[in-house]
Fold each of these.
Amino acid sequence: MSVLYETSGAVGLIQLNRPHRKNAINQTLLVELYDALERADADDSIAGVVITGKGNSFCSGIDLECFATDNLLNPRGDGHGMLEVFQSIRKPIIGAIRGYAITGGFELALNCDFLLADPTACFMDTHAKLGIHPGWGMTQLLQQAVGRPRALQISLTGEKIPVQKALAWGLVNEVVEEETLLPRCFALVEMMAANNRPMVQIVKDLIEVQDSAHLKGALEVEGRGFSDFASQFMNVG
């Protein structure tokens, strides 16, 4: 299994499970990730989802060995890519970041509602360095998280952003020790579970209203660009 899913109390825990490839993204991983997210969202006992990676990395981005053979745009054949799936999940999603979150893995993290990290975490956007068109929200979600000037610095240079800078720039909410990362994420979900569940959802929806129309249009432009770029290389049939 490329993705492991389990429940603990009110928490749905999703673990990317390709540690031998630093949890690099292929079609199978995306299918299993999307299925796990929707499974958690449909479970009334689950108040929130935590996504993390097995091994010493969160996610190293697209597995370039699979780029020409896998359908990463529409992996399940249902017309739903990463942005559509994450935006359809109504329950809060926390990203628990250990080690590298690079390029597509960075985008995966940005699609979570907020991030916690341990001291080993770091972030890189290497789209410009590798000549790969962004397609899972990098150009919009990163500037939403850290502001336009910092997003430009991160994406145009490809420099590594260590966890303390990520914390100072507002990319992550908290930095906690490795052994307490998942317990802290679980504790936050349990706090949400103890609140009025319908009102938690209402508040989440209201917070997301800001700039939603502009964001939707901008994400569509990015997505179309990625689709045109990827169709030159990958199997999208």
Note: The mean pLDDT is 92.
Amino acid sequence: MKNSIESMDRLINSFTKLPAVGQKTAERYAYAVINMDENAVKEFASNLVLAKQSIKYCSVCGNWSEEEVCNICKTRNSETICVVKEPKDVVAMEKVRNYNGTYHVLHGVISPLNGKGPDDIKIKELLNRINQGGVQEVIMATNSDVEGEATSMYIARLLKPLGIKVTRLAQGISMGSDIEYADEVTLTKALQDRREI
């Protein structure tokens, strides 16, 4: 007969909903929370709720923001737009520190096998930004897997007739890997050696 504590089971189950958290890791997290000081647990829970309530998407680029328009869109040079798959890719690209342009977050990639076409990601919003004028270059910084490459090529075909320079991050980021896991040196090199597509 299994000795089970319902509230502990619920806590463990909650942790398993996080990406890459299996049963054993969820149990370790739950035990750590139970062993925390009650005030620390309240602060942890409060931070979770506050983040969920405060963070939204920037109305211009689609990155995470606590304001209607994110600080990057407010302060950066809008002649260059770096297109990424998800907000966490912006975090990775910002580690480069020598990129002074803006971003556009697609919130996905074209993936017919997963039922995602061009209308299911933020391509129209990118085109709207470009049609407002002033954009000189679009850097495609989607992952170098099949879906990321297909999305880059699709967007490049849309932008070429508009006279926009479209570049792709250089190799250095290995095929099939995710931008978020690349180190700063690799991302810097890939950004500097980007190629036109």
Note: The mean pLDDT is 89.
Amino acid sequence: MMERDSVVKDLGIEFAELEPERVMATMPVDGRHVQPLGFLHGGISVTLAESVATVGAWLNCPEGKIAFGSEINASHLRPKREGTLTAVGMPVQIGRTNQVWEVHIRDQDNKPVCISRCRLAVVDAE
């Protein structure tokens, strides 16, 4: 599913760990990811976080169900111009109709860049 053309592919997000209790992905910071002043765009961090949370939620959905992001917040902690980000997501709650995931994004020096919480709606797959 993640091999198809999508924002994940376009931004260079690569999933390194896919477990129901932990999802990890990496993403470079380059010209695709920065705002006009050359710093990592906050929306890109949010996209990385939601991508990790969504994949984690899919891993926890029962057969015939799928999850979609319904709410997300993010605290941007450190500006970045280049490097590699690692996002690790873990579930806070796995419910029948909703899931909540927390995602920590760190840079190549293991310094925090962003922390996000994402709520996902669990719906019928169609």
Note: The two ends are 15 Å apart (CA to CA).
